[in-house]
């Protein structure tokens, strides 16, 4: 499992002209799932995201109660080593990935996070204003 975590002053996801998720002064988290990932990996990733000291003043979302926008992102597992066309073979199929992305969200909420989401499998427009900028790649 991989996650790209960014501190944002604002971020939102729009699907078919409808805002489906939005946060202010929080984190934007793009989550990618591979074939071997488990529910335990999702819970561990959620804890890492919640406690990651990426915010201003060496603080975490848990310290500040910062909201988190979670967006599924299979392209985090693109293989670009050969040629010009990415291979998606390392990305888990949707029937594996969707429940695990949902588990990350569920685990974050269980930890006390306010979580918004994108819409799995939809063509999403994701916009954000990165603060810092701070962008961290987490791998599990």
Task: Report on this structure.
Helices cover 25% and strands 37% of the residues. It has a 5-stranded mixed sheet. It is globular and about 40 Å long. With 140 residues, it is α/β, with parallel strands linked by helices. Helix 1 packs across helix 3. The protein contains 3 helices and 5 strands. Strand 1 and strand 2 (18-32) form a beta hairpin. The mean pLDDT is 97. It has one domain (2-139): D-tyrosyl-trna(Tyr) Deacylase, Chain: A (3-Layer(bba) Sandwich), CATH 3.50.80.
Alpha-carbon distance between the two ends: 5 Å
Provide the CATH architecture: 3-Layer(bba) Sandwich
CATH fold node name:
D-tyrosyl-trna(Tyr) Deacylase, Chain: A
Strand fraction equals 35-45%
Order of helices and strands: EEHHEHEE
- Overall CATH class: Alpha Beta
Q: What percent of the residues sit in helical stretches (DSSP H or I)? A: 25-40%
Number of strands: 5
Enumerate how many helices there are, as a single number: 3
User: What gross morphology would you assign?
Assistant: globular
Spell out the CATH superfamily. Answer: D-tyrosyl-tRNA(Tyr) deacylase
Low-confidence stretches: none
């Amino acid at each position: 499992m991989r996650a790209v975590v960014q501190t944002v002053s604002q971020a939102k996801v729009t699907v078919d002209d409808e805002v489906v998720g939005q946060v202010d002064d929080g984190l934007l988290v793009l989550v990618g799932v591979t074939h071997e990932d488990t529910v335990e990996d999702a819970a561990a990733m959620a804890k890492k995201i919640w406690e990651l000291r990426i915010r201003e003043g060496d603080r975490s979302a848990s310290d500040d109660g910062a909201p988190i926008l979670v967006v599924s992102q299979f392209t985090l597992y693109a293989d670009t080593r050969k040629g010009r066309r990415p291979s998606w073979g390392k990305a888990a199929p949707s029937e594996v990935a969707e429940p695990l992305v949902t588990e990350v969200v569920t685990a974050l909420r269980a930890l006390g996070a306010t979580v918004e989401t994108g819409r799995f499998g939809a063509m999403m427009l994701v916009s954000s204003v990165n603060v810092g900028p701070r962008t961290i790649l987490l791998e599990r």
